[in-house]
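Budget justification aside, the reviewers requested a transparent look at the raw inputs and outputs of the sequence design task funded under Objective 1. We therefore reproduce one unedited record. The lines immediately below are the structure tokens for a 288-residue chain.
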């Protein structure tokens, strides 16, 4: 148990940053002079779900076939499984050397839904590989990050089926980091947010109902400039595409109730001792 001795509430809008972007910025925080704040907690936060399923720099994979290498680039943006397959098949059909590839997804009206994509090509004379970098495009297509995946040669065509269920949720959990917070020296995560319940292009909102439970140790600083940045579970940055985030912070000094109790007991002991001495003096005076 602990008590809050002093506190200060700060409202942050990434639009008023000193430098950086809405996703990774430095901002000045007007903290009280000579404060003794020990902890900080997020009271309210609103993060726009404006980041894309397929983002810049994480939108390519490689096809190697019979010694030839092809780079497939998916346009950035959000997709459903149907729109993704439409675009991907269009890229296959309009790219020289890849027009014998197709991608399909189970039709749940007539077959079991596995959540995996089946890739086919009609060239059965040699092997073909899908190669993915260490980014989320692999997960969208149902493969492991950084993996190489070989087609199985059949009599009339070659096939490759997604290793995993395709993941069309860009990030289910976001992490807000800041150099004003410390979790026992392990990391600088200020708060984590669960995003899967929010629709694309909406907002991820969180109100903290328990100040102490979500508090972090305040690192303090010689200046009032602090950095905030948003990542996924792989510590890769999240691009909010120009839309601002809002954060309400509470800085406070925590005083442990145990130390208050010890102080009270000492005070009470001294008081009782003084009372005892006064009574002894009074008895001596009366005896005389």
């Amino acid at each position: 148990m602990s008590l809050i001795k002093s506190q200060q509430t700060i409202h942050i809008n990434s639009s008023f940053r000193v430098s950086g972007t809405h996703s990774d910025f430095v901002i000045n925080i007007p903290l009280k002079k000579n404060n003794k704040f020990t902890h900080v907690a997020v009271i309210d936060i609103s993060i726009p779900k404006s980041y894309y399923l397929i983002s810049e720099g994480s939108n390519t994979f490689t096809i190697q076939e019979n010694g030839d290498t092809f780079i497939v680039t998916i346009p950035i943006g959000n997709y459903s499984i149907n729109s993704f397959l439409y675009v991907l098949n269009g890229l296959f059909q309009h790219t020289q050397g890849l027009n014998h590839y197709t991608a399909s997804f189970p039709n749940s009206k007539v077959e079991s839904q596995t959540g995996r994509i089946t890739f086919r090509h009609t060239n059965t004379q040699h092997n073909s590989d899908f190669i993915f970098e260490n980014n989320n495009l692999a997960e969208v297509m149902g493969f492991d990050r950084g993996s190489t995946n070989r087609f199985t040669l059949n009599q009339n065509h070659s096939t490759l089926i997604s290793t995993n269920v395709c993941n069309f949720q860009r990030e289910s959990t976001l992490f807000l980091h800041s150099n004003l917070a410390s979790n026992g020296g392990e990391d600088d995560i200020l708060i984590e947010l669960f995003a899967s319940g929010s629709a694309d292009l909406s907002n991820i909102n969180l109100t903290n109902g328990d100040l102490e439970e979500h508090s972090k140790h305040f690192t303090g600083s010689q200046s009032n400039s602090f950095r905030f940045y948003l990542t996924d579970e792989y510590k890769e940055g999240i691009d909010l595409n120009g839309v601002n985030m809002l954060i309400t912070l509470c800085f406070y000094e925590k005083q442990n109730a145990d130390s208050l109790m010890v102080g009270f007991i000492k005070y009470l002991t001294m008081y009782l001792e003084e009372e005892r001495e006064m009574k002894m003096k009074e008895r001596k005076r009366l005896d005389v």
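The helical segments are 81-93, 137-140, 257-287. The mean pLDDT is 89. Computational costs for records of this kind are itemized in the attached budget.
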